[in-house]
């Protein structure tokens, strides 16, 4: 019932970042976070036009620092002020495992349900109050970051000039809900999970490994495995790849934090603003929008993304080709980032 | 360590069938089944040209009786003698849960590893010794039944005039292996599984339900869920469909039996006959072959089936359209069987 230590959630693994308090955050599902902290990494001069980058399930700002942001990328810190905000439950921002001090009462299994809208409200307050940012040149993010991107464009249409949701949807699909439930069950079925009151993520090692192997089935594509793409990443066979990459990627993370994010992912839905009318919600978007699915994505397939894109007025579809499927987001395929950079770059160069 | 009762594996749920002993079956992986029984349902006059139908994971002859065989179908008992043989581990043929008498030493967790090739050897012996059948007009089956169909055509090319593997492959893919492992883990992670020495499948209810929900993610297609196809099947929402159909479908079955089939599924590979050379193995096939993938299949996608089809000399690809994906095999979509009947019917009408 009190916060625990996890050395993964430190600058050693995530580089430099700030912890910024936005104060009390009342939540859509009820309850609140008494003192909500957001972990934030910024790139570029604060006087540059601002870009917000949102994070995906299990990811943090660090993947953007390492892969997406740079003078050789569309997210160019010499031209823009790029703010990457880690989502609530990410393990860096306020999360079940680190809820202490003023947040002690919501540690671990007591953590409240958080929705995509809560993150976006928190981010808007952060940008306005802490950085003085009122209007964003671009909001972008992948997967759950795409959910936040859509939420921004629908909730705050006047504040978002351009939007680029990557490999994600505005309204989570039933299939995604079911997939996420199997991920959650892989963790909670582990006796070491103990109803969320484990003393260390290591207690839930077996469940986290099963959860990782489920990502192995859905996170990549059938072609990824068939073409043995992992050999190009330095692994001899698929079990070496799972044991050397996907399993450790997840087992260092906190189970309650992952579950908080998954509950949120399952319920991402901009149509909550319009009584369930998705077309009406997406019709509110005034941002120039580029919708960027990944062709081999098994759970955000392009056809699901197209269906939403056509409901956004000033929008265009750009399909990224990547045999890695959804986890193409990791940008390990050398052909991935040039496509992202081209699509984001052309969007940023479009006058609004 | 001794066989257990499971009322599901009776004629009440599977209609009439024979239990035929083929004697001792020595296995590819070593060990043997002392007295191998095969459950067999036949349709039509034994004097008609014979057709062999093989069964899929968790399935038995009964789905063929109910959906595939009839005078209004290509598998027409007024024209053919149709023999459906339940696979080893199916729960009707010799399986972990029913191994008793001469098979007592291989009950439950002591059951040996069985391969697709073992089933095919057993079936060939059954057909020859019990039915006097030397040559088959057609071998067909779906999923693991397709694995057996390919194995027949490669192992006994002179005995198979026509072959129609449906929604399956000759060499199991790595992706399928990984998917199957998550299914296995859903069962074995249940403390009630007790290393395979539970006293009833009800002890493993939670694990079997998780296993069922994984089928919900991969067994159907993303479009199945998006279009809420289950409402046409009489279910109000996706959880009602899972609770009313997919979960009970699996929870009545035996965990060890399912695991025996999955181990076999994971390792289906005709290239075992040719030192790993798949093209050489498929090159042995002389049967006229129609390869029938289902367009929305998430784990035997058409492109995996095409790759093999092109290695079979006298072959043709026929893709079935079905939003149900892999579990289109259940033939609940009224547009499914007409396609299967057309493809099998045209194959049967092709002179060889």
From TrEMBL, chains A, B:
<dbReference type="Pfam" id="PF00561">
    <property type="entry name" value="Abhydrolase_1"/>
</dbReference>
<keyword id="KW-0378">Hydrolase</keyword>
<dbReference type="InterPro" id="IPR000073">
    <property type="entry name" value="AB_hydrolase_1"/>
</dbReference>
<dbReference type="InterPro" id="IPR008220">
    <property type="entry name" value="HAT_MetX-like"/>
</dbReference>
<dbReference type="InterPro" id="IPR029058">
    <property type="entry name" value="AB_hydrolase_fold"/>
</dbReference>
<dbReference type="GO" id="GO:0016787">
    <property type="term" value="F:hydrolase activity"/>
</dbReference>
<protein>
    <submittedName>
        <fullName>Alpha/beta fold hydrolase</fullName>
    </submittedName>
</protein>
<feature type="domain" description="AB hydrolase-1">
    <location>
        <begin position="63"/>
        <end position="305"/>
    </location>
</feature>
């Amino acid at each position: 019932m009190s916060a625990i230590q996890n050395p993964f959630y430190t600058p050693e693994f995530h580089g430099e970042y700030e912890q910024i308090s936005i104060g009390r955050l009342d939540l859509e599902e009820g309850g609140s976070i008494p003192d909500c902290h957001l972990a934030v990494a910024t790139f570029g001069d604060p006087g540059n036009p601002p870009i917000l980058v949102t994070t995906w399930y299990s990811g943090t700002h660090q993947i953007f620092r390492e892969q997406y942001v740079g003078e050789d990328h569309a997210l160019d810190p010499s031209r823009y002020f790029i703010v990457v905000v880690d989502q609530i439950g990410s393990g860096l921002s306020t999360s079940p495992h680190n809820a202490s001090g003023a947040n002690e009462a919501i540690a671990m299994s007591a953590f409240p349900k958080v929705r995509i809208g809560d993150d976006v409200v928190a981010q808007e307050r952060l940008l306005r109050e802490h950085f003085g940012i009122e209007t964003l040149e671009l909001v972008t993010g992948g997967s759950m970051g795409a959910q936040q991107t859509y939420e921004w464009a629908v909730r705050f249409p006047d504040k978002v000039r351009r939007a680029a949701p990557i490999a994600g949807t505005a309204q989570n699909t039933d299939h995604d809900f079911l997939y996420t439930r199997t991920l959650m069950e892989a963790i909670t079925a582990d006796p070491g999970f103990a109803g969320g009151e484990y003393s260390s993520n290591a207690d839930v090692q077996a469940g986290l490994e099963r959860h990782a192997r489920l990502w192995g089935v859905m996170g990549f594509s059938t072609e990824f495995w068939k073409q043995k793409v992992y050999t190009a990443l330095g692994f001899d066979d698929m079990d070496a790849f799972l044991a050397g990459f996907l399993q450790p990627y997840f087992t260092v993370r906190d189970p309650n934090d992952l579950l908080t994010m998954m509950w949120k992912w399952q319920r991402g839905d901009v149509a909550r603003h319009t009584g369930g009318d998705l077309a009406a919600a997406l019709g509110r978007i005034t941002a120039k929008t580029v919708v960027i699915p990944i062709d081999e994505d098994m759970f955000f397939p392009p056809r699901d993304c197209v269906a939403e894109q056509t409901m956004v007025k000033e929008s265009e579809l750009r399909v990224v080709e990547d045999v890695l499927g959804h986890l193409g987001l990791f940008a390990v395929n050398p052909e991935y980032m040039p496509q992202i950079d081209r699509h984001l770059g052309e969007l940023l160069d479009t006058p609004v």
